[in-house]
Design brief:
Blueprint: E1 10-12, E2 18-27, E3 31-38, E4 41-48, H1 55-67, E5 79-81, E6 90-94, E7 101-102, H2 103-107, H3 115-134, E8 137-138, E9 147-149, E10 156-158, E11 165-166, H4 183-186, H5 194-210, H6 218-221, H7 228-237, H8 258-263, H9 269-278, H10 281-284, H11 292-303, E12 306-308, E13 314-316, H12 319-323, E14 328-329, E15 336-337, E16 342-345, E17 348-351, E18 357-359, H13 360-364, E19 372-378, E20 386-390, E21 396-399, E22 405-408, E23 413-415, E24 421-423, E25 428-431
Antiparallel strand pairs: 1-2, 2-3, 3-4, 4-6, 5-6, 7-9, 8-11, 9-10, 12-13, 14-15, 16-17, 16-25, 18-19, 19-20, 20-23, 21-22, 21-24, 24-25
Helix pairs in contact: 3-5, 3-11
Length: 432
């Protein structure tokens, strides 16, 4: 496979760094991506085709580079390479490690991540776009082509950031990827915005969990030729969610959309409700689309709401089932699954399984899911007793059912018992 640049070519960036072309990694609609080396460190170089190497694109890149990456999940442009004797140019960005996989790998069953990893991937992805929107930017082209994830840890990398646009800049030429664009863009009524990003994000999340498009059911299966008119109707003028509770005309077709039918029942009712809102109300009312913090709260609870059946399968805890007095049933063997103790702290619910970690987010509601503030431990003198060891930097207060309060210093353990509360510095948790 040959590209525009030969292996061994030396390119000098605007800051004076020398990059040697090592190999061609791939090509897309705008240009080619190369593995390049600078002082024994490897980076990625995107080198534009002639039709894409415009002055407008260069100015967009200059703005993006000056703003800096929203967080470490973005393979963000670092510096420009603009040769003096060429009309072409490119930019340097971090090189994606090979163990990161795409949603295409997930759809083709090349990877089989756990439920926890899926939820962690969704959380990190959504957090990345929250940070992007927080600096006044819009991505404009969210799709499964620009997300890569570690199937073991759920860490994510977002690539193709060279079309990011900021509020004070003119809309870029990119409208999005077919199937991911918001209906109002498909109809030609609006330009990309944070509201349209949120629609595209919902589509990507639906793919991640259901391995199917949210609008591709019976209507899509009946299309003989997927031409422009068919796409506009399916995704723009007449979109119908495949699980719309009030419109059953576009249900998944057996033998074609089996993934949707298999995965939809496996997840908690709260997730089904949020996807339903995203693709019913959210189709026509952009301002009412699901926000990043709403998704992140859901995924945090799902990450810490996984139960283990005796057959080995994992089952999600569903507060709606418990509220109705309905038993949780294993999707694999059909047996009832016992719900362990849990602690409810505001919007956050954590199942207290063996080795469960209480995270900073659970106690302080700040979406920090890396810092541990408590651990479920077994009483060494009485293995039948369990508690949460305080690993925070401050005291907690243990409040018994009769109102008696006992301080729990860092390193000490609060016993798990129904009706008992832990009063944290900024919240209160109750065992249930």
């Amino acid at each position: 496979m040959e590209g525009q640049l030969k292996n061994g070519t030396i390119l000098i960036s605007e800051s004076g760094n020398k990059y040697e072309v090592v190999s061609l990694l791939g090509a897309g609609g705008q240009g080619e991506v190369y593995d390049v080396k600078c002082e024994d460190r490897h980076y990625a170089l995107k080198w534009y085709f002639k039709g894409s190497a415009t002055e407008r694109q260069k100015k967009i890149l200059e703005t993006i580079i000056a703003k800096g990456a929203p967080d470490t999940s973005f393979l963000w442009p670092m510096e420009l390479i603009v040769p003096v004797k060429s009309d072409l140019f490119g930019y340097i960005m971090p090189l994606r490690p090979k163990h990161y996989k795409s949603i295409v790998d997930l759809m083709k069953k090349r990877v089989n991540p756990s439920f926890y990893t899926l939820c962690r991937t969704a959380f990190n992805l959504t957090k990345g776009y929250r940070e992007l929107h927080a600096i006044g930017a819009k991505y404009q082209d969210i799709s499964f082509g620009n997300l890569f994830f570690d199937p073991d840890t759920g860490e994510v990398l977002i690539c193709d950031n060279d079309n990011v646009s900021f509020d004070n800049s003119k809309p870029g030429g990119v409208l999005g990827t077919p199937g991911f664009m918001a209906p109002e863009i498909v109809r030609g009524e609006k330009h990309p915005s944070r509201d349209t990003d949120r629609y595209s994000l919902s589509v990507l999340l639906f793919y991640l969990f259901m391995v199917n498009h949210p609008l591709e059911g019976k209507q899509e299966a009946s299309i003989k030729c997927m031409d422009m008119a068919a796409r506009i109707k399916l995704y723009g003028t007449d979109p119908v969610f495949i699980f719309d509770p009030n419109n059953k005309t576009n249900r998944p077709v057996k033998g074609i959309h089996d993934n949707a039918n298999i995965y939809w029942p496996l997840y908690p009712e709260k997730m089904r409700q949020m996807f339903t809102k995203a693709f019913t109300v959210g189709l026509n009312e952009p301002s009412r689309r699901i926000t990043e913090p709403e998704w992140m709260t859901l995924f945090s609870n799902m990450m810490h709401g996984i139960m283990q059946c005796s057959c080995g399968a994992q089952v999600f805890y569903d507060e709606e089932l418990e509220a109705k007095g309905v038993a949780h049933t294993c999707w694999n063997c059909g047996k009832a699954v016992t719900v362990p103790y849990k602690i409810v702290i505001g919007k956050n619910c954590v199942l207290l399984n063996q080795n469960t970690k209480l995270l900073h987010h659970h106690v302080y509601d700040d979406f920090d899911v890396d810092t541990v503030v408590g651990s479920v431990v077994q009483n060494p003198k009485n293995p039948a007793l369990w508690g949460i060891r305080n690993e925070d930097k401050v005291n907690w207060t243990y409040q018994k059912a009769d109102g008696t309060q006992i301080p729990v210093a860092p390193g000490k353990t609060a016993g798990i018992a129904k009706g008992v509360k832990i009063i944290f510095p900024e919240s209160t948790g109750e065992f249930r």
